[in-house]
Amino acid sequence: MPPSSDFKRVIAESPYVFIIGVAGDSGSGKTTFTRAIRAIFGKDLVSTITIDDYHRYDRQERKELGITPLVPEANRFDLLEEHLEDLKAGKSIQKPVYNHDNGKFDPPVPFSPTKILIVEGLHPFITEKLRDLIDFKLYVDPDPGVKRAWKIKRDVEQRGYSPEAVIAEMEERKPDYERYVAPQRGFADAVIRIGFSKYGREASENRNVYHVTLCQNEIDRSIRNVDLSIDLFPIFSLAQRDFMVEFTTEDVEGRAMGALTFDGELNYTVVRKLERNIEIQTQVQPINLVKNGAYLTAGGIAQLILAWRIINRRIAIESAPGVAGGE
Ligand SMILES: Nc1ncnc2c1ncn2[C@@H]1O[C@H](COP(=O)(O)OP(=O)(O)O)[C@@H](O)[C@H]1O
Ligand SMILES: O=C(COP(=O)(O)O)[C@H](O)[C@H](O)COP(=O)(O)O
């Protein structure tokens, strides 16, 4: 791909359908963490499929069978594989629709592929075929306390459950989560862990500041050298808020992954440089995740780095011989 090309235009004109898989428990921030990707590429290029639509049983049937939606048999992965294969080949599908408001299925809807497709849900990496079809795999992994707070808030405010019902359901689902969902961390290119901020729980609750660890496998060799430096000078001169960065190696399902941890908030001036470097390297601009004068939270920085990783995976595919029209 020519270095000065307009990356969005190249993607729009390429036949390649790039699939991003986002796995994690219900209410773990899957939708929220893919927001940066949607914001960067825009509605025309990005669409999302939620795997909830591929449940085999409606809420009443699951109740009668005594199973949770986390059990693989409660989902139609064969149909999902078929649909992702069709979408990757540029074909439209008739997508099933699960309605969270009433726990039943609505009639299927026509769904056409966009050049970037986000597939999010409980089990996007459960079969080998799904893993092969997905180009970038992300696992979202909040601490139990964070997940509990997020899930209660969302399911009470948006899905009409009582807090007690949400808590009881979470307890009931735990063993199936550990058994069928959590092991998918082992297939992920990146795992995002989220805990309450070390600067106090109120920082999380009031300002969305979390302790965020981005575990990544080794960066693709194909990525060109890029300056991802953080400038210390504005940190010294604009350090009105607490911030920390840490790098460790962590064991993720038996794999050693590089773990970059952020907590707190960084001023726009510091983050804008990072964002600008990513814009120059990827030709995707403007990214503009932060507004002038504002602060970006640790989660926002993790999103920015993730977006950069994902864009680079897409560039690597574009440049590979014979794939997506590369030389
Ligand atoms: N990074 C985040 N920062 C703050 N709140 C979040 C974040 N991610 C998720 N949440 C909260 O958790 C709720 C559930 O997140 P959502 O992205 O809908 O989860 P999922 O798609 O995994 O079911 C959201 O409505 C939001 O209140
Ligand atoms: O586990 C999930 C996925 O939710 P999310 O969209 O949060 O990842 C839901 O419990 C099932 O889809 C069933 O839905 P319901 O409980 O509404 O019947």
Automatic annotation (TrEMBL):
GO molecular function, a single term: ATP binding
Catalytic activity from the UniProt record: D-ribulose 5-phosphate + ATP = D-ribulose 1,5-bisphosphate + ADP + H(+)
Domain Phosphoribulokinase/uridine kinase: 19-193
This protein's UniProt keywords: ATP-binding, Calvin cycle, Kinase, Nucleotide-binding, Photosynthesis, Transferase
GO biological process terms on file: reductive pentose-phosphate cycle
Associated pathway: Carbohydrate biosynthesis; Calvin cycle
EC number, UniProt record: 2.7.1.19
InterPro entries, per the entry: P-loop_NTPase, PRK, PRK/URK
Entry's family note: Belongs to the phosphoribulokinase family.
Family matches, as PANTHER family: URIDINE KINASE (PTHR10285)
Protein name: phosphoribulokinase
Gene: prk
